[in-house]
User: What shape does this take?
Amino acid sequence: MNLRSSVDIITEWDIVAARQLGRNEAKDVGFGTVDQARITTAISELARNIYLYAGKGKIEIRQITDGNLKGLLVIASDKGPGIADVRKVMEDGYTTSGGLGAGLPGVKRLMDDFKIETVLGEGTTISASKLLR
Amino acid sequence: MPQEFKRQYREILEQYTQRQTEHNLYEGQNFSRQLIQKNISPEEVISIHKASLEELMPELPNNVWHSFDLLIEVMIRYGLALKEHQTLIKKQENFRMEMELASNVQQTLLKTKVPEMNSLDIGMISVPAKEMNGDYTHFLNDDTTVGIAVADVIGKGIPAALCMSMIKYGMDSLNGAETEPIVVLDVINRIVEKSVSDSMFISMFYGTYDTSTSVFTYASAGHEPPLFYCAKSNSFSELQAKGLLLGVIPNVKYEQHSISLGKDDFVVMMTDGVTECRSKEGFIDQKTVMDIIESVRDQSAQDMVEYVFHKLEELQEFEQRDDFTLVIFKKK
Assistant: This one.
C-alpha cells in the first residue's frame, strides 16, 4: 500500500490528477461516497488555489492514524506569493467565494482539521485532515 | 450518518413507491424539516436515498447507482453554500444587535432636554430613518435665553452618527446660551474643518431666543431655512441667512439676523428630511408643509411637531427616507 504520494500542480489538468489520487486513497482508507466527494472537493479547491495564485505547487496525500481511527491528510504547498491577510481569506463571503461556499472556509468545513502556514514572498502550506468515524 | 434518519426515510420511500399518495408526500416534506433542523446536508440526503434504494430495489442496474455518485458530487457545493449561508445569517444577526447597542449609546450621548420657558412654548421631534440618527438637535439655556442648534449630516447611518458626536462635543465647549449664533457656527466650523474628511458635509442652524426682548437671533451654515409664521398677517416667510456648509474651509463669514416675535408667532426649524418628503406624485412642496403646520397653529408646539410628522409620514405612505427633525419655538 502506498501511504504517501503526491501530484505536482502545474496545469489545470493536474487538479484532476490530484482529485483522482485523493479519491483512490480515500476509498482505500474506507471513506464512504459522501466523504470521498468531500475530500476530493477540498483537494480540488486547494489545487485550484495553487494553480490560480501560486502558479505551481504540490498536493500530497497521506494516510494517517489517530488513536485507532484511520484518516487522510492533504498537504497543499507552494512557493507562491503567500497570503497577506489570512484572517480575511478565512472569512465567509470573501472574494471568490461570495456565497458559493467555496474557498478556504469551504475546505475547512469539508475536513475535520485545518492548518495554514504562510510567509509573504515565500509561499503557503495548508494541511487538512479528515478521520474516518 | 444518523441511522434513525435512514430508517425513517426508507419507510417513507417504501410507502411512496408502493402507493404514491399525497399523504406519503406530505410525510416526506415533514421529514425534510427534521433534516434541516439537524443540519443534514443535501449530499447526505442523496446518500440516504441511495442507501434506502439499495435495500428496497437491489436489482436496479449499475448505471443507476453510479448516477447517484455523480449527484452526490454535484450537491457537495450546495451543502457548503448552505453552511456558509447559515454562518452569514448568524453574523448578520450579530451586526444587527451591535447596531442596536450603538443606537442606544448614541441616544444617550445626544440626549438633549427641551427647556421649559415662561413665555416660549417649545416642541421637538427627531426620528431617524435607520437605527442611527444623522440629525442633531441641542438646546442650551439659562433663565432668559434659549439657544437651539439643528444640524444635519449629508448622508445617513453610522458615518453620519459618528460626525454628530463631534458637533456635540463642540457645543459642550461653548459658554452657555448667550453665545452669539455667528460665534457658535464659527467655533463648530473650525472643529469640523479640522476633523472631518472632505466628502462629509454638515449643515447647521443656530438660533437664540431672548425671552426678555422676544427677539430671535439666528445664523445658518448652509442649512434648510426655518419658516417664520406671523400670526397677525397669518402668513409664512423663510428666515434666510447666508453661510457655507460646515467643514469646507476654516474661515467663513456667517450672516446673523434677528426677528421680533409677537404673540402666537412661531419659528419652525427643520432638516431636509422634512422638506424633501416624497409622495408617489413627487416631492411634497413647501406649500403643503405650510398648510399642514397652519392647520394646527392653535395647538401646543409639541402637539404641532408630532402632528406634522405623522401627517407627512402618512403622505409618504409610512416610508421614511431621511432622518426627520422638526423644532418649533412659539411665543406664548
Observations:
- The radius of gyration of chain A is 14 Å.
- Chain A has one domain: 4-131.
- The helical segments of chain A are 13-29, 33-54, 86-89, 103-110.
- Chain A touches chain B through 18 residues (CB under 8 Å).
